[in-house]
Each structure stands twice: as C-alpha cells, then as structure tokens.
User: Fold these one by one.
Assistant:
Number 1:
Amino acid sequence: MSITIQNLNKHFGSFQALNNINLNVPTGKLTSLLGPSGCGKTTLLRIIAGLENADNGKILFDGQDVTGKHVRERKVGFVFQHYALFRHMNVFDNVAFGLSVLPKSDRPGKAEIRARVEELLALVQLSHLAKAYPHQLSGGQRQRIALARALAVKPKLLLLDEPFGALDAKVRKELRTWLRDIHHELGITSILVTHDQEEALEVSDEIVVMNHGKIEQTGNADTLYRSPANAFVTEFLGETDAFEGRIEKGAWQYHGFRWPLEAAAWQEQTATAYVRPHEWALAENGTPMLTARIGKIHAAGALTHLTLQPEQGREIHVTFAGSEAAQRGFTVGQNIALTPKQIYVFSQNELIDYSI
Ligand code: ATP
C-alpha cells in the first residue's frame, strides 16, 4: 500500500509541530522518519495511523482519501518503543489477541488462529517461548513478540515508533538486521520513526530527514549521504567537521586555501564547508587546507582514525585506510598537511556546491 501526504499542518496550541508536509511512501518499502528529538516524527506517524488529527491537509492510502477515517478502519499495525504486551497473557495469547477480538464475522476459527500465531512465532524465531509470560522475556524478545502481534491481523501498513529505543546497543543492532529481513520477506509497507542516523541508514529503503516540523530531504541512504540538500542534512547524517570560510572570486577560501566552485558566479559571502573524516588526503603539493598535529591514533582493523589538532580551529577527525596509515607510519605529535578530496559548501543552510 502506498501512502501520500499532501500539504499537512499540525499545531499544538500556538506551536507548529508539522509545517506543510508533502510525502510519498512507496508500496512495500521501509521508509524511516529521521530527525532530532521534537522534530515532529511521532506526530506525523500518529496522524498517518489516525491516532491524531491534522489541522489540514490530506492522507491517501493507495490513492484513497483516509483523512477522516478512524484508526480501526485504516488497518495499520503498530510497534512502539515501550512494549505494550499484556502482562497477564502468555506469548501465544498476546500474538493471538488482535485476531480473537475481531468482530465475529471477520474472526478466523480457533484452528486458523492457532496456525497463524504459530506461523508468526516461527517468523520472529520465538516458537519455543509460546507459553512464556512477558516478564520471562528479554527486552529484545518482547519487541519481537510485539512485532508478531502487530502482524497478526495482516495490516497493510506497519508503523514502528523507535521500536528498539529502549534496548542496549548490541541487541538494537541485531534487531535492525532482523527487521530489515522480515520486512523484505513480507513485502509490507513500513514506516519507522528513529532519531538514530545509523539505524536509518542501515535499515531503510527511503529516509525522510525532518527538522523543526519540516521535511529537509527525502532519498535513499546513498543520496542523502553523497548529495545532502543542506547543511542540516550534512551534519545530521554521519560525522563531519565544519570550517567557516568565505566565497571570493569563484572559490571557497580558507586561510589561503582555495576550492574552486563549479558555479563560479557566487557573490562574495561567508560560507561553511563540511568535510567528512574519510574525505581527507595528505597534501602532496599546493597549499593545504589544514596543517594539524596528530593527537590520537586509533587503529581499528581496516580503518585508522586520527584525532588532529589543527593550527586554527577545533579538533577534527580524519580516517585513513589502515594499509595507508601503516605505510605512512603516523606517530602522535607529528604534523601533517591535509587537503580535502571532497567538500560540501553551504551558506545559510543552502547548498552552494559540492564537487570532487
Ligand atoms: P522524539 O524523538 O523526542 O519522540 P519527535 O520528533 O517524535 O520527538 P513529536 O513527539 O512529534 O517529536 O513532538 C513534536 C513537538 O510537538 C514537540 O515539541 C512536542 O513537545 C510537541 N507535542 C507533541 N505532542 C503534543 C501534545 N499532545 N500537546 C502539545 N505538544 C505536543
């Protein structure tokens, strides 16, 4: 099922939580709503579910207007951060719950419910825990049961609000991979709310980056990472260091270093350039952008991370392939000259240039 959102706004009193949201969620894809705390992700998810009303705008499911429809009529499945399993019911009954409360005319027979629950427990790989109660499960197991329960009624849309938010880092990582696999196996349209960029980059087909109630950019992980639309997206997706320079004479300039801009006609102004840790090279000739002292070296297998103290400005991070670092023989205290392989130049949050 595809979801279309048109010109949607939402206020809480005088506070605007969502500002003119327009979005298409394609059928069968896992789309993440990614953004900092308070940017409106949960509000948007709740409006899609029918748990909250927008001030105006439209929501279409497969082209049909569902804006005025009740949550029950929208056929969505939910998984929230805080596992909402019924404590007095065992795992089997929790998963069966949604089916057993359907109106008589839609309710499957007992044998069919049993078969469906067994199928779902096998899908989430917890068949052996059918008779256990929620307090006997780990946090990760509870979230897997919550997912099985959400899927029991065969929803056309699955909404996940920080489903792994309360779990420790290792379990989160395992469940991410697991969620992506299950999603693709089922082919269901899913929307995941997360503030964790690594999680969004790892599991999503499409990512919607939000900030202050607005959509900043929509795209797959590769597009957002390589072609960020503005400074917010650049900073939010992955580590990056910022350098305040000026645009003059068709180039971004920083302490004597010049980076020619493709659109040479830019007027003179201050502009920030962003460089990611792996986008630096040792300067072989010409004026380097930075000269910096190596403060720390952390060799992590395939990659070596350097923490550098530049002559001007704050500490920065640079990553080299482990083989190059070994060949260069970096040492703490050594001064190195660096030049970027790629930079992203923005003025007042707007993209000016990124080029290799
Ligand atoms: P988080 O990651 O912290 O959950 P979020 O991006 O999901 O954040 P929302 O929960 O959608 O953000 O909230 C967006 C803004 O709207 C916040 O400033 C929040 O305080 C406000 N807000 C949300 N629900 C209500 C409400 N029922 N009444 C008043 N303000 C609300």
Number 2:
Amino acid sequence: MQDTDVIEEFHGLAWEGPFPQDAIDRAGNALEAGKLLYFPDLAFRLQPGEERFLDDKISDHSRKNVSFDPITGQLGASSVAGAEEKKLAAMLDRFGRQARSLLVGLIPAYEIGLERARTSFRPVEIAGRPTSARHDDKRLHVDAFPSRPMRGKRILRIFTNIAPDGTIRRWEVGEPFSDFAGKFLPRLRHPLPGSAWFMERIGLTKGRRSPYDFLMLGLHDAGKLDTEYQRAAPRVKLAFPPGATWIVYTDQALHAAMSGRFALEQTFYLPPERMLHPERTPLRVLERLSGRVLV
Ligand code: SIN
Ligand code: FE
C-alpha cells in the first residue's frame, strides 16, 4: 500500500469557501471511498491567550480528552473553571464551526442532515498511555460506540494538529473496509436474543442497537484483539505535523493513532442516505457480505 491509496491532498485552502471546483469534485468521492482528505497547510489559528490551554494538565485525566457539547455549550473533563472554562469552550466551538464550514464547503450535499456532535481537545500524548487492548487506539480499528447505537449513521471526524512544539501526530491506515470486514465478519457471533432490548432498558445504550451496531462493534473488537492481524495487516504510515488538518470517515477507514499530542477534533454524524455513493457505506457493505438487512 502507498500514501496515495489512502490520502487525497488539498493545498492552499482556507476554512471558509468558496472552494475551487476541482477540490469539490475530488473531496466527496475520495472521502466516501474511505480515503483521508489531507490539508497539510490548514492550521487552526489560536487567539491571544489561548496558548495557555496547550498544556496536558488541561484535561482532568478522568478521560483523556476534553469535550465540548455544541448542543448544551458545556465543557466536559477539563481542569479549568469559571472564565477560563468559557474561553476554552469558545476555542473548541470555534474549531467546530470552522470544521463544519470546511466540510459543507467541500461537499455541499452534506449540509442537509449533517449533525454536529462533540468537539474534542486531545492534549495527552498517545504513545505510552496505558489502555486495555479493546480501548487501545494504537491498534487498527474502525470506530463504533458501545453506548451510542448508530443504526447505519456515519461517523465523520475532522482533526487538526495544534501542537506548539512541532510534535507530529502519527497514524497508520489499513486496508479497504470491505477487505477488513470480509476477513472478520465470518468469525463474529450473533448477539443473544433480547440483548439489544435489555441494554437499552438498563441504560447501557442510548437507543437500541441494530444488527449493524452489533457487527460494527464486533469488527472493532475482533480486529483489535487479533494480534497476528495487528502485526501483519497491510498499512500506510502517516505523519501529520502541526498546522495540518485531515477529514476521515472513521467508521470506514481502518486507522490507528500511534503517537502525538494536542489535537482538536470535531465529530459529525451523517445519514447514510445523504451519501453521494450509498453503496460504499459500511452499512451497505456489511449487508452485501452478510446477505441480511441490518437496520
Ligand atoms: C482514534 O480515533 O482512533 C484516535 C484518533 C486520534 O486521536 O488521533
Ligand atoms: Fe478511532
């Protein structure tokens, strides 16, 4: 595998459009093919006073990331309070707005149905952070949420490296989703009857898991726990320096975050029917492979 298999590069763009037609033509197609859209020179500009947030003590370490909920305006898991907390929330909110503007500028068809989820600030160094295998994002995986059933909805994420000291964020990106899923799907076990209902009932999940959610979580776990796959699977190593931005469907692109600190990230959810190429979504791929309707 080589870089161009997994990356589509864009130079000289700003967060706000209008964007060149060539960029618009390339963006949606590449993204839905599972590629990362990569903007090596699209930095997030800090405002005066915001540099002081670039400190790993800014997260309260109950969780590795500080999060901002754009619906409630609340900041979570940070160690700051009062006026400082408001300023950090404003910084995350600004990043989320710019991320949205970039996304809908490049893929106008996404504007309808686009759901802005949490914004996160990831100050803590990834390398050497203790985790269980299942939670270890240094292992190749596709994203799936145990407590938030997606029922086919897409998970799209926009990252910017804002490290003040030159620290590169290093990722690995693996084989196409259909190849990965084809290997692991036959090994997954069916959930116990009634378990989706039960997990919703006791509040373990927000809403009910569909067969799609069980399969995506199964793929996430089976892939991470397979040490031979993790050792030998094909991959491309990527290095994102400070000032770089990338956009990726993390429910589709097999990815691992190997090292780095100080990234901003905005998550979006998108209805699968709003895709330019619905047949390429994980939902449709898994339905084809399993021969079942999954939502
Ligand atoms: C992940 O989604 O696996 C983590 C990505 C990152 O923090 O760079
Ligand atoms: Fe991930």
